[in-house]
Amino acid sequence: MAVSLIVTEKLTTRALNRATLHRQLLLQRVDRSACDVVEHLVGMQAQEPFSPYYGLWSRIRSFEADELAALLLDRRVVRASLHRATIHLVTDADHGRIEPLLRPFLHRRFASSPFGFVTDGLDVDAFTEAVTALVEEKPRTRRELSDLLGPRWPDRDATALGYAASYLVPSVQVPPRAVWGRSGPAAWTTASAWLGATGPATSIEQFVRRYLAAFGPASVKDVQTWAGMTRLKSVVEAMDLRVFTDDRGRTLYDVPDGPLPDPDTPAPARFLPEFDNLLLGHDDRTRVISDEDYRRGIIIGGKPTLLVDGFVHGIWKITDDGLDVEVFRPLTRAQKADVEAEGARLLRFAGVTGDVRL
Predict the structure, then answer these.
(1) Range of 39's domain?
(2) Where are the alpha helices (DSSP H) in the chain?
(3) Same domain, residue pair 65 and 178
(4) How confident is the chain (358 residues) per 10-residue block, as mean pLDDT?
(5) In a domain, 246, yes or no
(6) Among 10, 178, 187, 250, which residue has the least CB neighbours within 10 Å?
């Protein structure tokens, strides 16, 4: 099936910004459960264990950290290597839908990683069988897996075997890792042991639709960058989607009912955690961060970011006695008041007594 509409409308960077913020639930906080929001976002980047707590706080009205902690303990959400072969927080149902779809790409990413050499000539079936038995006996860290697998394959690099274990076997990280107020090592078990039987994998078309509903309008390269997949052009072009262009002349696709707010819609200050998918979910990130600010390395460096008027405007850090905010450009009086008020709310959420220091 060909796309239903030809290119008829151009979307400015500001229009894309407001559309993306709206779909990311960052224009206005919502009254939805944490589980519902994680699923709406098709997962949340979570390589920093507590980042999703701050990401959800920025999106959900009256969010409490204990809600997400309980979901992790109850196995309603899980942490696993998924999009872009990085740790993501997803619902239990979405793990069953998404992991089988991404598995070939995860294996390919691992093969091209610094540890990928370890699989050359390896009996992968025997290896995955051994890993499965070990992590289903009890959750294991990569270090523990390296120590246990190394003697069985003494001609292989033990550290690389530990990494291969969590990529070649569908695995999840288990609590107390990432449980608010607690700490624990990154220990792994199989997804099937932790979650039980899950539903069938989603189709690639449905995966793309869900991405567009939460991140669109977007280009084919945007989808591929977010998912860590390739060769999606023919898939996207065959779907029944709206088509636009942007200021850079790129072709953008969107779900038929995707909301497009007025570009002049006010965007309040938002404090986003490290590696929030708002900043990682596109190939062209100028809808949320300028080229100048991107070159500061704040995304690659994993700095928590401040949005002002919908765009990255600074970075922040919570300390023992307050919140330090570094802005890249001067704020108006109204913007400064907005940032200070939102920063005070952030400190209350984090349980820190102190001042917002701009």
Answers:
(1) 25-195
(2) 13-23, 34-40, 51-57, 65-73, 92-111, 124-137, 142-149, 158-168, 191-195, 204-215, 220-227, 233-237, 277-280, 291-294, 333-350
(3) yes
(4) 60 98 98 98 96 98 97 98 95 96 91 91 94 97 96 95 93 96 93 90 96 98 96 96 94 97 97 96 96 89 95 97 97 98 98 96
(5) no
(6) 10
